[in-house]
Amino acid sequence: MRVVRLVLSVSISFLLSITLAAQQTTTSSPQALLLQRSAAALSGGQTLTDVTLSGIARRIAGSDDESGTAVLKALVTGESSVDFSFPSGPRSEVRANSTTGPVGSWLAPDGTSHAISQHNLWTDSSWFFPPSTLTRLLSDSSYWIIAYVAHETKENQAVEHLTAVRQFQATGAPASWTPDTLQHLSAMDVYLDSFTLLPSAIRFNTHPDRNQTVDIPVEIRFADYREVSGVNIPFHIQKYFNNGLALDIHVTTATLNTGLTVAAFSVR
Q1: What is the pLDDT of residues 93-148, one digit of tens each?
Q2: Does the chain have fewer CB atoms within 10 Å around its N or its C terminus?
Q3: For residue 22, is it left (φ>0), alpha (ψ between -120 and 50) or beta?
Q4: What range does the domain containing 229 cover?
Q5: Read out DSSP for 77-94?
Q6: Which residues contact 101 (CB under 8 A, 6 or more apart)?
Q7: Residue 167's domain is classified under what CATH number?
Q8: Is residue 4 part of a domain?
Q9: Are the C-beta atoms of 68 and 85 separated by less than 8 Å?
Q10: Which of 158, 165, 160, 183 is nearest to 173 (CA)?
């Protein structure tokens, strides 16, 4: 997996004064109803608390092309972890919530832990598990602005394109950090299959360690949905980094609601 080395380079003390701003989207809006139908198609009416996906993974980064194993875990509250074992060494990342906003760290093959810059933590943490993503988008209508873009064709597939943006109101922030800046950092594009309404892709941007103004596109593609305990789960997950395939995961086992707790997602 191609990993952007992320170092906390901007003071986050001002985030203590960030409050969530109210927004106009209601749960009865057309875009919210579309997401509700998608969430229902994913969950089958089941209540989800956590997920663990295990499988095989191929990592592509420049001349590096290697295969290994993957374990991906998430809570619907936003905590997540990804752990890979490759011939070049283990690679992992963990994300969690804190009183100052999202936090995260990644572990290099040599065992060195590095903080993830907070400007790369505002998009969805469980990018590999759409049911969790949609649950959070729908759980707090004062936090997310959901907009319908258009009926489109993507990768020869008819899709419904929506956007999701976190809504902030920041006070006491540095001049370069405004609500608009934060909203841009959190923006995601969600593509739903027009016939099944199952998510086919999610797009967002990541950024260099010390420059949140440079956008690097990331796209997650979902395929091979299978029903596990009544829940539709994608068994093929691809991660594109800067328009090139960086990670190809084939899930072999998926378990739900096993009792994972926040303690399992410790940011180093």
Answers
A1: 999 998 888 999 999 999 899 999 999 999 989 999 999 999 888 886 557 888 99
A2: C
A3: beta
A4: 13-264
A5: TS-EEEEEEETTEEEEEE
A6: 12, 15, 18, 118, 121
A7: 2.50.20.10
A8: no
A9: yes
A10: 183
Task: Give pTM, 2 decimals.
Answer: 0.86
> Measured between alpha carbons, how far is 207 from 161 in angstroms, rounded to an integer?
23
Can you tell me the distance from the alpha carbon of 153 to that of 150, in angstroms, rounded to the nearest whole number? 10
Whole-number Å distance between alpha carbons of 119 and 214: 11
Q: What residues have CB less than 8 Å from 88, skipping those under 6 apart?
A: 64, 66, 109
**Per-residue pLDDT tens digits for 67-96:** 999 999 999 999 999 999 999 999 999 999
| Helix (H), strand (E) counts: the chain | 3, 15
Return left, alpha or beta for 248; rule: phi > 0 is left, psi -120 to 50 is alpha, else beta: beta
The total number of structural domains that make up the chain: 1
Distance CA 261, CA 248 (A): 27
